# Entry
Amino acid sequence: MQIRTRLTLQFLLLAEAILILAFAAIYYSSATYRRTNFYDRLTDRAWSTAKLLIDTYGDNPEIARRVERTNPAKIENEKIIIINLLNDVIYSTDQKNEIEIRNDVLEHVRQGRRIRYRQGEYEVMGVLYTSFNNRFVVITAATDSEGHAYLNRLRIIMLIVLLISLALFSVAGWLYSGRALKPISNMVKEVDDITITSLNLRIPEGNGTDEISRLAKTFNRMLERLESSFTMQKSFIANASHELRTPLTAINGQLEVLLMKDRTTDEYKHELSSVMDDIRSLIYLANRLLLIARTSAETPSNSVTKLQIDEILWQSRDEMTRFNDKYRINVCVDESLTDSGQLIVKGDEFLIKTALSNIMDNACKFSEDNAVNVMIKPSGRWIELLFEDHGIGIPEEELKKVFEPFYRASNAIAIRGSGIGLQLVSQIIRNHNGEIEISSDVNKGTTVIIRIPVAV
# Structure
């Protein structure tokens, strides 16, 4: 079912429910008023007749009867019965004895209570009349044809109004829902025009204050993220292809040259050694690309594996110095870290070690002295690792781009590298709910700060 149809039905049901409740309240009030008013009239007739018969013309009841017959206040089919304490009927206009005189009614009336009830088409009222220490039960009965006819007409009118309003509310609900959903319909048309080749398009945001505008803003922000993601993906594929093609082309060229003529054993060894270097570079790049794909697909780590961050750092240092004996990595632990529990984090040991190794490798590689100073210190609920070198630095305008894949600073082109290390580090740290900051001055050095939450 379409939203417009569903909204129309909901609007119709709600309006009809309110209308029915209103009509029910009106009808109940009218019926209550009719009944109360009619019983009040019966009470007045009972009192006036008893007063006339007992107090005014008590010595001559025939005169009282004639006066009552011509009384303009008489009610339709009126029956009045007056009964004394001995249960003798001293006055009655009920010639056919249609009204039943019930003992329980007489008893209740004599207790001072007014009794009203229905008997067939008659509505009956019983009251107590006192005169000169004598007590009389006056029973008045009559039919209210006019009142019931009014209620019948009211029911018919309400039914007609309900049916007409049903049609009107249907039309109004259809038009109202159509108008209410028009911005969404327009949005759907706009979204239909957006394809993978036109992610730069945006949805109009309207007045910017209502729910539809907020939805449009949210959708536009999603499009911005998608556009950025697709742009980065295209750039990543282009750069990865280029980086992979370079060593493959070199390998292919060297092998073709090698096969052009017979060579000595030493020449073969020399050329194959060069090919092996290119293959190692290719393997290194492939591993980094796989790590980027792995970390990009993972959500922030909820690993329950607890790790000693200082141990991982020392292991990374040892591996890096074995990899290049020129590297000098100085590790210092803050004196305030007296409890080993302050150095425990949760995460993936291999990934954290990869991130730390990449930072230390970059720091040493881009420094003339091949040295980096590492400081471990607490920072509230975080453990902070500070890497500081005195290398070539990064231009200030390029700092925001260093975490993009395959991006290399303009002053680092001459130094061998792939440009994916910092992007990989950033992704690993984010996946461990951590933070990374980088600051740098050209020809003075670079400082990288990593914060990882301490395990609790």
Remarks:
- The chain has a mean pLDDT of 82.
- The chain has three domains: 3-149, 211-295, 300-453.
- Residues 211-295 form a domain with the Helix Hairpins fold (CATH 1.10.287.130).
- The first helix runs from residue 3 to 56.
